[in-house]
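Hi R.,

Here's the chain you asked about this morning:
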Amino acid sequence: MFPEGAGMIELHAKIILTILLVLYALMEWNLLVYRKFSKKPLAAYPKVSVLVPCRNEEKRLDSNLRSLLTQDYPDFEVIVLDDNSTDATPRILEALKKSPELGSRLKTLKGAQLPAGWQGKNFACHQLSQAALGEWLLFVDADTFHTPGMLKSAIQEAVDRRAALVSTFPRQIFTSAGDELTVPLMFFILLSFLPMFFTDKKIPVARSAFSTACGQFLLVRRDAYKAALGHAGIGARISEGPILAARVKAAGYKIVLADGSDGTACRMYAGWKQTFEGFSRSVFASMGGSVAAFLFFIIIQTYVYHGPWALLAWAAAHGAITPMIGATLGLAAALPIWMRWRIHRRTGMSARWIWAHAISIAMYHAILINSFLQYRVFKNTSWKGRSYAAPSA
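And the predicted structure, written out as tokens:
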């Protein structure tokens, strides 16, 4: 006979393991769907405008632009908008423009003052799009880095899949345990909760359903961008990648989310403090500002990722561990770590901290709660020296 409470522990252990097995199956399916960028050569290469908004990016801008200016693509331009930076960003741009090898392909813009009703990045991207000459527009963040073949493979992916928008989540580079514990959850949550098979499929009853994209890397054809009203249609909203993808898909164009991590990387944040502040600005917005989604992730993730450890501790303290309980809870605790290993290996990220997955989830929840409070309670958020009252999700 089970000690008192052991039967309930075994029931919860089986429920948790069942949910995790479903999430694991979805992740493995997604890893198949999230295929690498195409390597199929093209007969012709359309003109591409590579557009880089930057504000106070002195630490990473030089390496970013050098990696973009040396792409092995036959017809492209690089346009950078300095969004009223107060650091060395303008001097870096001026030095690159004077470079005999790189300066001829680089065009720089001075950003206008931010008008009411806009987020800074959206307005910067809008100005860049107006100056662009290419048939395709590639929006990349200033903290990304690219291999020489990135642009060619991204266009090959778009043409091969007949897509009007292609996005990828760059391979993430870490500078501390704080960002390494939290940033990879972007991939983990995407691959274990979103059925990516439907991302490029038309859903008649909900034209933008299952759409998502990463604002760090957005390649979009000019006609589709205009049909979706571009960044002007986003205005004051935050987390522009998923929103633009949804608008492009709703306009009847095909969007594709593919794995370009071999060709593009990003160092988003330096340390826990910057990670906490940066993700707090965007994580609740990336859920569309949905309180239901906020509660869903808090409750489900606490149950399936913290539940096994809590139940193991309770069972051990009360002498209620049976072979079935031990095996079920042990597997439930280990499975997310195995999932993380699969994802990190596929995307080229360091796997040093995957064993601390439960800690990562707790840190993510702290960010999510802070993001929720910024939007729904304090109605104010800030980033890079700008404060936004009553931000729109």
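The longest strand covers residues 48-54.

Let me know if you need anything else.
M.
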